[in-house]
Amino acid sequence: MISFLHQHQGHTFRFQASNWMGWEKLWVDDELISRRFNISPHAEYVVKTASGNNYRLTTLVEPDSHLIICRLYRHHNRAFEHVCSIKQGRDHQMRQNRYLYILSACAISAALLLLMI
Asked: Which of 30, 75, 86, 93 is most open to solvent, judged by the fewest CB atoms within 10 Å of its CB?
C-alpha cells in the first residue's frame, strides 16, 4: 500500500493506492472523496473543500526511477499553483511486498499445521 499524507491551510489530504489491486482512495478532511480502480501510471483528482477552495491532486510513476510522485495544487487566480510534491521510491514497494510475502507464508504454514492436527 502506498500512502501520501499532507496538510495545507487546515485541510488534510490523504491518498492511498494498492500495489496489487489498483484501488485508489482519496480522503479530504477525513471524508472519503473518491474510491476507484486505476491501473494506469497516473491519476488526477479535482476536489472542492468545505471552505470552498479547489484543489487538484495528481499521481504519476516515473518510468526511469520508478518513483511514485503525488502532487497537490491549489486553485488560485484562475490557475492551479503547486503546493507540494511527495515521492516514494521502489524500496518502499519492495519492503511492502516482502512483508506481504512473509505474512502470507506464515498464514499458509499455520493453516497447514492446523490441518495436520
From this structure: 30
Q: How many angstroms separate the CA atoms of 89 and 3, rounded?
A: 12
N-terminal to C-terminal alpha carbon distance within the chain: 35
Q: What is the dihedral of CA 76, 80, 85, 90, to 10 degrees?
A: 160
The residues pairing with 17 across neighbouring beta strands, listed in sequence order, are: 2, 24
- Indicate the length of the chain as a whole number: 117
CA-to-CA dists, residue 85 to 38, 55, 71, 81, 99, angstroms: 20, 14, 4, 12, 26
pTM: 0.68
